[in-house]
Amino acid sequence: MKRPFKFSAAVLLGLLPGCTVGPSYHPPDLKPAPHWSSPLTGGETNMTATNAAWWKTFQDEELNSLINRAALSNLDLHMAQARVREARAASAIVSANYWPNADASAAFSQERISKNGFPTFPPSIPLEANVYQAGFDAAWELDVFGGTRRAVEAANADIAAAEFGRRDVLVSLLGEVARYYIEGRGFQQRLVIARQNIQTEGEILSLTKDRFKSGLTSELDVQQAAALLATTQAQIPTFETGFAQAAHRLSVLLGQSPGALLTELSGESSIPGAPPAVPVGLPSELLRRRPDVQQAERQLAGATARIGVAVADLYPRFSLTGDVGLQSVSASDWFSAGSRFWSVGPTVQWKIFDAGRIRANIRVQNARQEQVLAHYEQTVLASFEDVENALTAYAKEQTRHKSLTDAVEANRQAVEIATQLYQSGLADFLRVLDSQRSLYESQDALVQSERAVVLNLIALYKALGGGWQTMPAQAAARS
Predict the structure, then answer these.
(1) Which three-class secondary structure state does DSSP give residue 449?
(2) Whole-angstrom distance, CA of residue 383 vs CA of residue 168
(3) What integer pLDDT is reported at residue 339 of this predicted model?
(4) HSE-up of 250 (CA within 13 Å, CB side)?
(5) 102: left (phi over 0), alpha (psi -120 to 50) or beta
(6) Three-state DSSP class for 272?
(7) Strand, coil or helix: what is 23?
(8) pLDDT recorded at residue 182
């Protein structure tokens, strides 16, 4: 009787490394364009991107400090790190299915047997007895058709997807910190320009009042000068509000209360300048740098593996089960040889009829895989779009910045000439007002353009997926 069991166990163990059902995953074969369609005319080059610590190219110590603190304390990043730990723990749960389950149990009970339940109940057997029992039982489901292997494959893909998701959060965080820092500095510079113009316009108003008192001009000139001054002064609260909001947002990104950085950032500072050259690499390199693309690819691998998990339910399940223990009606001989019992043997379970549930689940997993594939392709296209848009915006804004620089210089000279002509009585006051208004508008536009150039560069760095490569120790401290 032992040979059949030994033969069956040997057969089952031989099947253990058997086939793996379901489709095997192969990354999609994408062929990106050989070059960017946007012209590289703003200091960009197609050299291999070296934008790991891109924020350091601005040479701003305050920005560097904010970046480092955000990588340690940002709450969105902490949540992303917790998702990585969750995926690792879930993978350990799935991997545990490779191993047998063993349980220990012990019990004591008082039992009475029904005398009337047996017509010829032997009188020598007591109707009441104490039952002592303790033992172990184990079960081991053999992964013959690879359902567990596919589940582990999917769980490992989930770990990688969660890790790339954490990196994507980090990329977004670095971009947001730099963006709001530049926004804050931009509002500060607009405040500087506005206050300088307020001082100049105040001097013009004083000059106009003196000329009015001397009978050299009309009251209309005085009122026009006062209106120009008041209009410029009205811009101050708007700029102060913009700076405060940027500082509040930075504080929250650093995991602090909104007002925590107001004092630290209140000192005036210029907008950091862009580096002379920005290597962006080729489109084919982008797919290896963008963590959101890599996350979508790993999600596709996991969805493909889950098809195999569903397909494995079509096949029988083979298990080895057994239990061993001690049982006695007397505590005195509970541990004697006669109290031992055991059983062991293979089992087979196969769902013969389930009203189409298994095949419906396979169709569900196939449909989900198609969705994830479309999401991956869409993510790839969106990544190329992000870079193209950032390249175009960065190049065009630099062209606009050069024109605004020339406009500011021309308007400054126009103000000087108009003021001199007005003081000499050779021009009316309207020219002075128009030239002063044009100067302020062009100066304010130039500051906004300086801000836009840097913001577009930050958007380009973010689109290229830079930043996470240099901060593994900080950003992954809680992983």
Answers:
(1) helix
(2) 12
(3) 79
(4) 30
(5) beta
(6) coil
(7) coil
(8) 96
Q: What is the pLDDT of residue 35?
A: 87
Three-state helix/strand/coil letters over 105-153: EEEEEEEECCHHHCCCCCCCCCCEEEEEEEEEEEEEEECCCCHHHHHHH
Buried b (16+ CB within 10 A) or exposed e, 116-132: eeeeeeeeeeeeeeeeb
H or E segment and range at residue 329: none
Termini Cα distance of the chain = 54
Cα 157 to chain centroid distance, Å, stands at 16
Tokens of 394: 């960065």
Residue 13: the pLDDT is 46
Contact 212, 222 (CB under 8 A): yes
Phi, psi (deg, nearest 5) at residue 109: -150, 150
d(Cα 46, Cα 62) in Å, to the nearest integer? Answer: 30
Q: What is the pLDDT of residue 122?
A: 64
The pLDDT of residue 5 is 38
Ranges of residues in the chain with a pLDDT under 70 are 1-18, 42, 49-51, 115-127, 469-479
Backbone phi, psi, residue 145, to 5°: -105, 10
Q: Are 155 and 303 in contact (CB under 8 A)?
A: no
32-47 pLDDT, tens per residue? 888 888 877 767 777 7
What does the alpha-carbon distance between residue 172 and residue 463 come to, in Å, rounded to a whole number?
9
Return the SS3 of 454. Answer: helix
The answer to whether the CB of 376 falls within 8 A of the CB of 296 is yes
Q: Where are the chain's structural domains?
A: 19-99+161-314+358-475
Residue of 170, 175, 192 whose CA lies nearest to 271: 192
Q: Report if pTM > 0.90.
A: no
Q: Which residues on neighbouring strands pair with residue 343, listed in sequence order?
A: 323
Q: What pLDDT is recorded for position 50?
A: 63
Cβ-Cβ contacts under 8 Å for 203 (sequence gap 6 or more): none
Q: Identify the burial level of 71 via C-beta atoms within 10 angstroms of its C-beta, where 0-12 means exposed, 13-18 middle and 19 or more buried.
A: buried
What is the spatial distance between Cα 447 and Cα 450, in angstroms, rounded to a whole number?
Answer: 5
| Cα atoms in the Cβ-side hemisphere of radius 13 Å centred on 456 | 24
Q: Write down how long the chain is.
A: 479
Helix pair angle (357-423, 429-463), 10° resolution: 150
Q: State the CATH class of domain 19-99+161-314+358-475.
A: mainly alpha
Select from 292, 302, 294 the least CA-distant residue to 155.
Answer: 302
Tell me which DSSP letter residue 24 carries.
P
d(CA 286, CA 329): 74
